[in-house]
Amino acid sequence: MANHRNNVVIDIGLIVFSVLVAIILTRTGGLQGILTATQETRFIGSFIAGIFFVSIFTAAPATVALGEIAQYSSAISVAIIGGLGALVGDLMIFHFVRDRVSEDFSYLVKMAKSKKIIAVFKFKMFRWLILFFGALIVASPLPDEIGVTMIGLSKLKTSWFIPLSFFLNSVGILIICLIAKSLQ
After folding, report:
1. Domain residue ranges of the chain, discontinuous segments joined by +
2. pLDDT under 50 in the chain at which residues?
3. What's the rounded Cα separation, in Å, for the pair 71 and 22?
4. Residue 40: what pLDDT?
5. Which of 91, 120, 139, 170 has the fewest CB within 10 Å, making it most exposed?
6. Which one-letter DSSP state was computed for residue 5?
7. Buried-state track 15-35, b at ≥16 Cβ within 10 A, e below 16
8. Cα–Cα separations (whole angstroms), residue 95 to 89, 122, 148
9. Rounded CA gap, 156 and 138, in Å?
10. Residues 128-140 pLDDT 10s
11. Phi/psi-derived region of residue 123, left when phi > 0, alpha when psi is between -120 and 50, beta in every other case
């Protein structure tokens, strides 16, 4: 029991640390500098912008960078390469959520000692619903953390998550690229 409590504290600490780093990169312009520097090499720029596309703190500058890269490149190639980058970012979140946070979540639900709450999470329908809504969030322009967390809590296997994440993010990036090209 103490081990689960320690894991919850460590996980919260990691999340707070990553949020602080993202805020510092965004506020100091460091992230924009990285994304702008890589625009010269469009493939690398698309990939790196794709990685940053999935986070709530870095999605806006990554979206701008992807739109700018699309102005001088094929929207499909930017979407595919950016989708691969987004997959890398999502996999980092997914493994953290599925392996650690879902255990912590289960521990917190058990601590609630409410049989009704525990019963809801055991239904297969709940897993499918949480997977569906998580996929909708990943496909939307919203940052992926919440959607990937929901998918991780549904216990989806990595072998299914990889093509799902790649497809959903590539479609989202393609839409951004097409909008950027139409505004050109």
Report:
1. 2-182
2. none
3. 27
4. 59
5. 120
6. H
7. eeeeeeebeebbeeeebbebb
8. 10, 21, 10
9. 14
10. 888 898 888 888 7
11. beta
